[in-house]
């Protein structure tokens, strides 16, 4: 290997952090009247200074397969990170998962208050589409609007938002409190929507930015879906094996809630086997890109073996 | 007058209702995995079967100034209505305005639960941008992406979301509970953001759909801003003078909360005078459109005199 994955992760994280900070500056943009100070502080708390920035990395590295420089992919990457961050802010709310800690810091509603956290999430979600609409996302309006469509589908009703709905239902929230005994397929649907869709659309965005052929786009989507599934299984394994200190949030939550995951359904050894197979599938999907696919293949391994 | 405003309001409301129902159908679209039943039911509860559909009317009638038929403007109109409906669902939440009643029916978190209401709002917000991304919104991607940009700016940090933040702050929510004694300018900022921005972007959307010149777009924006300000003053007057039965939601809330409005700041007679002036300003802004501007001019009168 002639590259360091850590260096590349760090580089895309730094570029994303800078673009996010610019997007969350205090000065109002054309079409805005003013930016309320408390709202901006809450949005910055929820979006800046933390996170692996895995989704931006996937956008930037997928675009790089087509020769697109990082500075031309970072705006779309930042838009997707805004969606990820808003989902964390809303999922952490007392009415949802009721978490006090995120990335080792107080969640937005703990650092501010519930109303502010709801609005900060709404603001980040809206900002994502604002970012995609600007010329710095891509010079061609047709590419920008394709990004809007792909991101809306991945993060809305039939994607991330729907996945969180299924997750709350799985906990038994709407059926008397007893967790649902979901079949393996239903767990896969839930996870593909809740976390997989946004990871998959990240590589799809890279394909759109790079003007990929239909075959290349399909290959990247297959990679993204395998990576997304691997990510969630790794997360479920960490919830069983990790410590709060490592992970930066509460662990053991799934078991405590009696929640159906692929780990609880298949058992730890079978879940590990499945995880290995998904990593292999992800790498295999990258075959059309030859040696250029090495960074994304290494990223799949990283996602499967991460400790936080 | 050779038209009936009521008939035109009814026609755009019916077209919007039909487009919304289609967008909120149970079947998953390409790029979606499945649409969870409870989420769809909550989104339909929050979006269908109620409301004046004033914003869609403004989109459709503004586009009509440029000869655009209603069926070519209804998708963008529906996108803006999705934003309006999501804002109501989130604003009604216990952590925000804590309302039990909306349009004479239980609010979404009362009919379902808080978590579902948060997700239904997130879903509607995301759906708005999905709708704008489709070819039925407009055949030209450049127009569609301009709509995305305008709507994101009007509804985000420096628009509607920011306005709700300022509104909560004005109630004294973050300063010990005593309502802030806002100056007239600060009240105008708050109202222009909280309700004015989305009304103004509705007519701006019509201008974008119609390929308006810069002058025509500026004229429509001036109309939209005057209309938005008039709408909010009429709302504040209704909160003082209306009954819950007429209005379909609690009244007397502003006075009970000691909230600064232009009515409380200026007194009822001066607020009425200002309202009349805004209606005149709105009509005057339509001068470039000659007789074709009559429907929108009549709409400004309607907004000022409405009882619900």
TrEMBL record, chains A, B:
GO terms for biological process: terpenoid biosynthetic process. It comes from the Bacteria. Coiled coil: none annotated. Belongs to the FPP/GGPP synthase family. GO terms for cellular component: cytoplasm. This is Probable farnesyl diphosphate synthase. Its cofactor is Mg(2+). Keywords: Isoprene biosynthesis, Magnesium, Metal-binding, Transferase. GO terms for molecular function: metal ion binding; prenyltransferase activity.
